[in-house]
TrEMBL record:
GO terms for molecular function: calcium ion binding. PROSITE patterns: EF_HAND_2. The lineage of its organism: Eukaryota, Sar, Alveolata, Dinophyceae, Peridiniales. Residues 118-150 form the EF-hand domain. This is EF-hand domain-containing protein. It comes from the Eukaryota.
Length: 150
């Protein structure tokens, strides 16, 4: 539970969304209370974990404004769909359908330029979610790919 100045921000089981990002912290709005709180970027891994970690077979879509080209070869561009083919420690290998190329992406890097993709619903909702545990800590966090700058 987090409260300050008589206002409760969140309690165990509350649902919240990442609504902003600053250089030093993430801003989380809690739906039950309507209040916002901050999670330090330097500590988010201590109190949070993504609700959705990449697994082999997961499909990703490149966000608008992103493209990777090296030595004259375009690996992916905005809107491209890729599939996680291999996971090696903190790296994922993504095969891109349009180009046939594969890229190695660090655990946190994929959040910066992709979103989940499925045939039923293309991508993530505008904001991704947090749940607070009964101790008031954040036990589950899904970071907005478009905002993530970890």
């Amino acid at each position: 539970r987090l409260a300050a100045g008589g206002a409760e921000f969140f309690a165990g089981g509350d649902f919240g969304v990442v609504t902003g990002m600053q250089e030093e912290y993430y801003v989380v709005a809690w739906t039950r209370t309507g209040q916002s709180s901050e999670v330090l970027r330097s500590r988010w891994r201590e109190v949070c974990r993504r609700a959705w970690d990449l697994q082999i077979g997961d499909r990703l879509q490149v966000l608008p404004g992103h493209k990777y080209e090296a030595n004259g070869i375009v690996y992916y561009a905005a809107g491209d769909i890729g599939e996680v083919r291999r996971i090696d420690g903190r790296s994922q290998y993504i095969a891109w359908e349009r180009t046939g190329q594969t890229t190695r992406v660090s655990e946190d890097r994929w959040l910066k330029f992709t979103r989940r993709f499925s045939h039923e619903k293309a991508g993530l909702e505008l904001f991704d979610a947090f749940d607070a545990d009964s101790n008031g800590g954040v036990t589950r966090a899904e970071w907005l790919a478009a905002f993530a700058r970890i």
